[in-house]
Input
Amino acid sequence: MRQYMVPILGGISINVISSLMISSVFPPPEATFEVQNFFEKPFGVLEYLTLFILIVLLPFLEECAFRGLLWKILEIFVSKRSAFFISSLLFAICHVE
Output
């Protein structure tokens, strides 16, 4: 477990720093206002299902894709640290809005 602390903290740092840099340069996307409107309505089954998919299911699948599949493929060609850095960088780039 200890051997993974530096890569984990590095990935978190890359994501936080890149998010802060991007949010300081660009205004919030219009989707932010759509999300606010979503929470102003009363909740039904469809809204709870949507929240479950957005908050639980999609992030889980995303982690499986980036930390599982992509990382394993990259490890074939580069070191573990490089694979972690590349997959973290791609993860951050994919979240630029």
